[in-house]
């Protein structure tokens, strides 16, 4: 099974700051990497699919990049409504595996 | 508007069975693969199972293989998860998701508690 390691597990940043979240796979996942946002008490929501494709309705301050085993979610200017836990998901091979999440808070 | 509504959760004793349902609306259900994802209390997300749009292909996570069965009724636009031989570690909120293959729509979740 492919293991997904997210870092950091917790991040505190200021409004307006550029934020970078990382996800590392235990083997090449060929850019089949999605990012999901989960706010407290809510269902997860798709942000980015296939590494760098912004899902419909997601603000352009969110972007994704990466290849091989290393992937990044960037928020160009952190907003208060971005407080959430962010999960990556690899879809390169079965079983699908999520990272353990990065909890993002406002400083 | 795409809507996914789970039902069938509740409290169940270890070793017993439970069946979850997910009613879909706002899209042509039979055109899409579907999935179940769960989240134990205060934990992360865990993919449980996926099924192809026609129902002929299924995949399961290692922790549920042989105990859980995913199925669908395209005429009723409904996804199911039959959960047998339940264990305390199956306690979680279970989400159904449209599996594009990215999971672009999610239900609000159904809570399952396995306890004596």
What does this structure look like?
The complex is a heterodimer of chains A (107) and B (116). Chain A is mostly beta strands and 107 residues long. The termini of chain A are far apart. Chain A is globular, with a radius of gyration of 13 Å. In chain A, strand 7 and strand 8 form a beta hairpin. Chain A is built from no helices and eleven strands. In chain A, the strands form two sheets. In chain A, strands 2, 4, 5, 6, 9, 10 and 11 form a seven-stranded mixed sheet that branches. A four-stranded antiparallel sheet of chain A has the order 1-3-8-7, with no helix packed on it. Chain B has 116 residues and is mainly beta. In chain B, strands 2, 4, 5, 6, 9, 10 and 11 form a seven-stranded mixed sheet that branches. In chain B, strands 1-3-8-7 form a four-stranded antiparallel sheet, with no helix packed on it. In chain B, strand 4 and strand 5 form a beta hairpin. The N and C termini of chain B lie far apart (40 Å). The mean pLDDT of chain B is 97.
Quick summary:
The complex is a heterodimer of chains A (107) and B (116). With 107 residues, chain A is mainly beta. Chain A is 0% helix and 50% strand.
Keywords:
heterodimer; A: 107 residues; mainly beta; seven-stranded mixed β-sheet; four-stranded antiparallel β-sheet; 11 strands; 0% helix; 50% strand; globular; B: 116 residues; 53% strand
Order of SSEs of chain A, N→C? EEEEEEEEEEE
From the alpha carbons, calculate the radius of gyration of chain B and give it in angstroms.
13 Å
- Given helix and strand content, the structural type of chain A is mainly beta
**What is the molecular shape of chain B?**
globular
Quaternary state reads heterodimer
Radius of gyration of chain A, in angstroms, nearest whole number: 13 Å
Structural class from helices and strands of chain B?
A: mainly beta
Q: Tell me, briefly, the overall form of chain A.
A: globular
The main sheet of chain B comes to:
7 strands, mixed
Which runs of chain A of at least 5 residues are low in confidence (pLDDT < 50)? none
Q: How many distinct helices of chain B?
A: 0
């Amino acid at each position: 099974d492919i293991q997904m390691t997210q870092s950091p597990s917790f991040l505190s940043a200021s409004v307006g700051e550029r934020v970078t979240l990382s996800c590392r796979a235990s083997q090449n996942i060929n850019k089949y990497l999605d990012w999901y946002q989960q706010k407290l008490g809510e269902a997860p929501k798709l942000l980015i699919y296939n590494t760098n494709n912004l899902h419909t309705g997601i603000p352009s301050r969110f972007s994704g990049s990466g290849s091989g085993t290393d992937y990044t979610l960037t928020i160009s200017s952190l907003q208060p409504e971005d407080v959430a836990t962010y999960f990556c998901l690899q879809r390169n091979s079965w079983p699908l595996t999520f990272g353990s999440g990065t909890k993002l808070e406002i400083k | 508007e795409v809507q996914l509504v789970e039902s069938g959760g509740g409290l169940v004793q270890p070793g017993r069975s439970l069946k979850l349902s997910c009613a879909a609306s706002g899209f042509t259900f039979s055109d899409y693969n579907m999935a179940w994802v769960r989240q134990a209390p205060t934990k992360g997300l865990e993919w449980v199972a996926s099924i192809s749009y026609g129902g002929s292909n299924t995949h399961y996570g290692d922790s549920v293989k042989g105990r859980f069965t995913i199925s669908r009724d395209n005429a009723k636009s409904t996804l199911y998860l039959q959960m047998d031989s339940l264990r305390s570690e199956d306690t979680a909120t279970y989400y159904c998701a449209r599996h594009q293959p990215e999971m672009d729509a999610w239900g609000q979740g159904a809570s399952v508690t396995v306890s004596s």
